[in-house]
Design a protein that fits this description.
The chain has 233 residues and is α/β, with parallel strands linked by helices. Helix 3 links the parallel strand 1 and strand 2. The mean pLDDT is 95.
């Protein structure tokens, strides 16, 4: 039996607003406190969905430097490939939210369609999407009231070392305003094991004036992914 998700490189993610709210256990007051940053957002429609709701949301991902049609095509291929992988792992996944893998795929496709409709608008692309990546984001200090990072940090711990994670957390704290918060999910690697150096990173957070605690996700999917990390700046 497989106990990991096989992945080469960083996948393009496609998740919607409702998934983010459940996944990050997002309170309404945090969403409306000021600007929200979604890091490693890929083809997720969270920013488009949030803007539609009157929220101030911005997304960052290095793939936003690509031509829109190439990014959308890559995301479409990723959905197809990832679905085939997940079909081999359904006995280990929590499908309570989605129902089954076909509905999981359908949610990815709808999210990508919403993202594409927004991203292909020149004005929206210029104002809402930045070709930035950790650990050096192209944003001013203290800009965002809420910083989110889904399925990137910790998940790819075999590709990115402790130094990368440390620098990334400090960078997220830099762009988050005092009194703001950072939420990261999940805390598992692609081997479906807890990130082994989490405690050392929490010490870094505390040494730099932040506090950290775990939150319970309302959308666990992979084994052991019941919690995310909340950093208060």
């Amino acid at each position: 039996m497989k106990n990991r998700y096989e992945q080469a490189g960083v996948a393009v993610t496609c998740r919607n607003f409702d998934e983010y709210v459940k996944m990050f256990d997002l309170p309404e007051n945090e969403l409306r406190a000021g600007e929200v940053l979604d890091i490693a957002a890929g083809g997720s429609s969270f920013t488009a969905d949030a803007r539609e709701r009157g929220l101030q949301a911005v997304a960052a991902d290095p793939r936003y430097a690509m031509a829109p049609d190439l990014l959308i095509s890559e995301a479409e291929q990723e959905i197809a490939v990832s679905t085939k992988k997940l079909e081999q792992l359904t006995d280990q996944l929590d499908l309570t939210y989605y129902g089954d893998i076909s509905k999981h795929r359908a949610a990815r496709e709808v999210s990508l369609k919403r993202f594409a409709a927004h991203f292909t608008q020149e004005e929206a692309r210029a104002s809402c999407y930045s070709a930035g990546s950790l650990p050096e984001l192209p944003f001013a200090d203290n800009r965002f009231s809420l910083v989110l990072c889904s399925h990137f940090l910790f998940l790819y711990e075999e590709q990115f070392d402790f130094s990368f994670h440390k620098r990334s957390l400090l960078e997220m704290m830099r762009v988050c305003r005092p009194g703001g918060s950072i939420r990261i999910y999940p805390l598992m690697s692609l081997k479906w094991e807890p990130y082994p150096q989490l405690q050392q990173l929490l010490e870094v957070v505390r040494e730099n004036g932040g506090s950290a605690e775990l939150f319970a996700t309302k959308l666990p999917f992979i084994p052991g992914s019941e919690h995310g990390l909340l950093i208060n700046v």
